[in-house]
Amino acid sequence: MSESPAAESSSPERPVVGILGAGRAGTAFARTLLAAGVDVDICSTRSPRALQHHLKIYAPGTAPVWPEEIAVRTRQVGPGIVILAIPQEELDDVDPQWVSGTVLVDATNTWQDELLPGWLEAAIAEQLPTSMAIAGHFGRARVVKALNHISHHDVDKEAQPDMPLSQRRAVAVAADDEEARGLVMGLLVRMGFDPVSVGALAAGRIMEPDGPLFNRPLRRDDILRYAR
User: Fold this and answer.
1) Count of domains in the chain?
2) What is the pLDDT of residues 153-200, one digit of tens each?
3) Which of 78, 79, 191, 217 is deepest in the core (most CB within 10 A)?
4) Model pTM score
5) Residue 68 lies inside a defined structural domain of this protein
6) Burial class of 150 by CB neighbour count within 10 A (0 to 12, 13 to 18, 19+)
7) What domain range includes position 82?
8) How far apart are CA 52 and CA 87, in angstroms?
9) Domain holding 65: CATH number?
10) 170: helix, coil or strand?
């Protein structure tokens, strides 16, 4: 394995967040984080070298890394957060060990035409929120549901870090772990959103594609109506 470019782009004063997935959502998150002063390591099915040109276009300044390196710098520098931004049909391609010990932000959604892993299909058949199944699969990470109910088209333009919280777009956050929820909410504030806790991870159902929060421009009071 050749060395990834992440070390060259490291900035010791800046926090680092990892992103699993360099598609439209992953690169939108990356651009917003970079604009907020957060360094980003990102990976995909392509090698870091093969990913470089893509990132120069869609997320300049992002450091491509091998998947097994995605959590290394965020665990070392902080805040220990990795964003899961891949199609759910590819979840079995992610080794849970890669995100062990991190706060894993589940920004994924279930679409009807996807061929899902068996363990996720079983959870859906039992009418469980998908984040609960993901939390079980990635058992050594602390899973937080966030960023899935805002379209990747809106992430850049809706992030307003210079605006008061009350004037920002509100985003829902669901988690069982209070500390993990707090870390993600702090990151969302830095990115330019107004994070609102809706309760435990099971409450993440309202953030899914058929839920009342999905792909709607919301303010805090809109989300609090559904909080548990």
Assistant:
1) 1
2) 999 999 999 999 999 999 999 999 999 999 999 999 999 999 999 999
3) 191
4) 0.93
5) yes
6) buried
7) 5-162
8) 21
9) 3.40.50.720
10) strand
